[in-house]
Amino acid sequence: SRELEPEWTAVQNLSNNPNIVSFDCETNPRLCRELDVASYPAIRLYHRNGHMNRYRGERKGNQIHAFLRRAQQPPMLKVDVASVSSFLDIDHVIFIAHIRLGDDSLRDRFNALANKYRNLYSFIMTGPLQDQSALHCINNIDEEEHTATNLGTVGALEDFIKQCSSPLIPELTRKNEVEYTRSGKSLLHYFFGSEEEKEEYRTEMRSLAKKYAEFLHFTLTDVHKYPEMLRVLGLKAGSKTGLSLQNPNTGDVFPYLRRRKMTAELVEQFLIDVISGKVEPLSTKPNGHDEL
């Protein structure tokens, strides 16, 4: 696809590996059938022993490059406690299991988890820091860390994976929008028109998103993929970008209507104005929700 082509070129440049190639299934249908590629674009890693890994992450050059790097290391790295600090920047998201002697159950479950998610994250097993076992994770993208010690409940490890790997400022899609609209929190929607705009906004708002994370999700929406959402959130149809605060619990929508470059200071002032009642929700205006 056109969107993937520049990202794939970035992967080739980062890896400098002649074995990173691409095929057009429209012009090479036979080859794609032989490789059992039913839908595309598809990204797969083929090993000499016949094993194959499917890439299911974001179609971004740096993410795909990280996937290739993980494939060259074992599913789980075993290191001593003193050496752990040397591995804290090897990946975007890293999970570290500090396992006490004799805790075979956690050791086996963590090993299974590492094999399941090896294509997405890096896993390290080491000795305990205290008397009990614990899991620690580092999200180098959002500069966050989490620790869990209550690991005996059903689904505890999977929940920890989700907590650590979920982006602080997620991009909304049809697949995940329900998860966020039903979270009980308000959503601050930012519409972007390019990858550069998206990443610039993420970087600018990261600290602010952490500050308000208890009751507010900062989210991103591709204006080209979901242009109809502009009007739903009180913004002008056809806009190239926009910002709007939504309370899914009440249906209230607070569009930001000023045309100014989005800065953390400006956005926080907008939130303060909404909280203090200086900005009225769209639903309180005549016919405000008729078109939603």
TrEMBL record:
Q: Does the keyword Nucleotide-binding apply?
A: no
Q: Name a biological process GO annotation.
A: response to endoplasmic reticulum stress
Q: Which GO terms describe its cellular component?
A: endoplasmic reticulum lumen
> What is the first-listed, main subcellular location in coarse terms?
endoplasmic reticulum
The reply on keyword Isomerase is yes
Catalytic EC class = isomerase
In what residue span(s) does the Thioredoxin domain sit?
2-69
Q: Which molecular function terms from Gene Ontology are attached?
A: protein disulfide isomerase activity
* Catalysis: reaction(s): Catalyzes the rearrangement of -S-S- bonds in proteins
Question: Where is the protein situated, by its record's location annotation?
Answer: Endoplasmic reticulum lumen
Q: Which domain of life is it from?
A: Eukaryota
Going by the UniProt record, its keywords in alphabetical order are: Endoplasmic reticulum, Isomerase, Redox-active center
User: InterPro entries this protein is in?
Assistant: Thioredoxin-like_sf, Thioredoxin_domain
- Bilayer-crossing regions: none
- Pfam families assigned: Thioredoxin, Thioredoxin_6
Q: What is its EC number?
A: 5.3.4.1
- Family (UniProt): Belongs to the protein disulfide isomerase family.
PANTHER family in the record: PROTEIN DISULFIDE ISOMERASE, PROTEIN DISULFIDE-ISOMERASE A3
The task this protein performs is described as: Participates in the folding of proteins containing disulfide bonds, may be involved in glycosylation, prolyl hydroxylation and triglyceride transfer.
Q: What is this protein called?
A: Protein disulfide-isomerase
* Species assigned in the record: Lasiosphaeria hispida
Source taxonomy:
Eukaryota, Fungi, Dikarya, Ascomycota, Pezizomycotina
